[in-house]
Design goal:
It is a single chain. This protein has 311 residues and is mainly α. It folds into 2 domains: 158 residues, no CATH class; 147 residues, no CATH class. 73% of the residues lie in helices and 0% in strands. The chain is built from 13 helices and no strands. Helix 2 runs antiparallel to helix 5, helix 6 packs parallel to helix 8 and helix 9 packs parallel to helix 13. The longest helix has 39 residues. The termini are close together.
Amino acid sequence: MSTENRHLIRLAHNNSVYPLSPLIVIAALLALAPYFWAGFCPSRFTGWVRGLPLAARILLPSILCVPYVLVSVDRGAFSPRWLALYAGLPVAMAACLSLAGSRRSKGHWLEFLILAILGLSVDLRWFERAWPAHLAIFNKVLLLDAGIYAFVAVRQLEGVGFDLRIRLRDVLVGLREFIFFFPIALGLGLALGFLHVHPLGAGMGATALKFAGAWIFTFFFIAVPEELFFRGWVQNLLESPMGRGRALMVTAILFGLSHFNKRAVFFNWRYVLLAAIAGIFYGRAWRSNRRVAASSITHATVDSVWSVWLR
C-alpha cells in the first residue's frame, strides 16, 4: 500500500492528521467524480464525451487542474508550473489517443508512451512534490481520471471492462482466483519472511468490520485503479502483438516490478516476487470475462487479508 493511501486511511480515523477545509472536500469530490461517473455509468460517460465537438473533446480534460488549484491555494502552495502540468498533460493525452483512435487495431506507439508516462510518474512519484504534505493522493486520482478520459472516452479502447457495477460472475471469478493464489502466497510469503501471521485479537465482529472497511477502501482506491491500468490497459494492449499467454506473464512481471520501492529503501525483491505471482492470478481473473471488477475483487481480497491478518 502506498504512502498516500496510508495517509488517507489515517485521515478517515483521525482528522487531526491534517485539518480538512471546504476547499479540500470540494477538490476531493471533483477529483473522484470522473472516476465514479465512468465506472458506474460507462455508456453515458463515453456517449456524452463522444457527442462533443472534437476541439471541446480534446480540451475538456484541462479542467482536471481545478482540484490542484483548490488544494494548493488552500495550503498556500500554488505553482503555475504545476498548474500547467495538470491542465496540459490530460489534454496532450486526449489529443494523442484521438490520433491513435483513428486506427482500429490496438498497440499504437502513442498508447504505450502514455502508459509509460502514467505508470512511471505514479510509481516514481514524479509529480508528488506539487502537493502539500499528506495530500499527494490527489496526484494519483487525477492521473487516473486523465487515463480514463483518454483511453475509455476518447480512444474507446475495446475489451477494457471498466464497469464498477459488480456482477455475480465477477464475484465468483474473483474469489476463485483468490482461492487459487492464497495457498501459494501464504506458503511462499511465510518462507521468505514477508508474511507474519497475527492472532485475531479483537472479537469476531470487530475483526469482520475491520476487514470489510479495508476491503471496500482497497477495492475502490487501490485495486480498481491498478487493475484498470495493468489489466484493462497494459495486458489488453499487449495481447495483440504478444498473444494472451505472453501478455499475461509480461504484465504480471511489470506489476511485480511496480512494487520494487514499497516498504523498502531500495529494491524489495520479496514484494516484487509475490506481487508478480499475484499478477498472474489477477490477470487470469480479468481475462476470464475481460472485467476489471473481477480482478479487482481478487486484488482487494488479497490485500485485505494481508492487511488484517498477515502483515
